[in-house]
């Protein structure tokens, strides 16, 4: 949009003719003369006052129309609701399932701040459901018919949100940012959640700038500080080798599912696989000798995203590895202990029809997330002391991955090699995973004490 600050505004002219009296407002932008006629003097004076007010504020005028940018946006731009729906559609095919859900939740939070009407407003819980599950879910919106109450809520939303241009006002954008710091029930959101939501809003407003709905991105210029994000792993969750072995042995004894899940948890502990990578592990990914060190080589993961957010409509979806291009592979070391566990697993449990190592016991189908979490809780209760069980120590299966990376670092493996095995950058590694193993600090203190006494 071509803009100018070279503006001249003249007095309103009155013209009386056969068809009545008209009042003309005349002004010029960048030397181009403009005029607009009104039936009444009040309307003409009101319009002229807007021009004068914009000029005094130092606002730019659009050369093409001769109008201040604020009026251009007000007259021509779309509502936030319509823009947000189009933004989701433009991103849908590029995002993974979890990113789609996170985008919908962030946009829903912003939309609830930008509501303008009160008459006939549906309940907030219904509005949030309509936004997250329908308006900001491209696949659902385009392929399914919404229930009557959802349709009514969406219709109300389409008529009752601020124009996108209103976000140029710092106070409105600030209200959105403040809303991102709270969960739907009003509790403080986790710092990582706030950062993720803010990223969505910043990106959306960046697209609004590209589409000339905003002159600049108000989220990046706003004087607003997000809460600090804890980027380091809590060292209290990291198990030492003795604790890890005890947990894996305990898994074996946990009901009908336990025996088939020992190797599942073991690949997370010994090779730092993510749960989605472990679930997708196939016999073809294993490069195993009879004994000794082997290697795991894989190129796909199947994270849990929910049926509403996947392309296939299934709860999990096959995707490339995290932070990797499609088809890119990653290898991870397979220590001798894991080599033996994998051989035992294959001999006792085999694979499914697609070569996957891990699946549900009763159904023989996909291993449910609830199943392995239940087994893990029971294994922790049986293997750990009461104090350890009440602590964050290995509370989630994912914490086994943290333990694996910490073990490699404490063993003196170069960070570049550890980062390659774990599947992320060296910067993330050093900032997030460089943690001591449980029980190692006491050894470090003894070494320091011995050195001081020797001196």
What would you note in describing this structure?
The chain is of the alpha+beta class. The protein has 3 domains: 3-76, no CATH class; 80-221, no CATH class; 241-390, hpI Integrase, Chain A (Orthogonal Bundle), CATH 1.10.443. The protein contains 21 helices and 11 strands. The strands form 4 sheets. Strands 2, 3, 4 and 5 form a 4-stranded antiparallel beta sheet that branches. A 3-stranded antiparallel beta sheet has the order 7-8-11. Strand 3 (13-17) and strand 4 form a beta hairpin. Helix 19 crosses helix 20 (426-433). The radius of gyration is 30 Å and the shape is elongated.
Q: What secondary-structure arrangement, pairings included, does this model have?
A:
Elements: E1 3-4, E2 7-9, E3 13-17, E4 20-29, E5 32-38, H1 41-56, E6 61-62, H2 69-76, H3 80-91, H4 97-113, H5 124-135, H6 138-143, H7 148-159, H8 170-179, H9 191-210, H10 218-221, H11 241-252, H12 255-258, H13 262-271, H14 275-279, E7 286-287, E8 294-298, E9 300-301, E10 319-320, E11 330-334, H15 336-349, H16 369-383, H17 386-390, H18 399-410, H19 415-422, H20 426-433, H21 440-454
Antiparallel strand pairs: 1-6, 2-4, 3-4, 4-5, 7-8, 8-11, 9-10
Helix pairs in contact: 3-4, 4-5, 4-8, 4-9, 5-7, 11-13, 11-16, 13-15, 13-18, 19-20
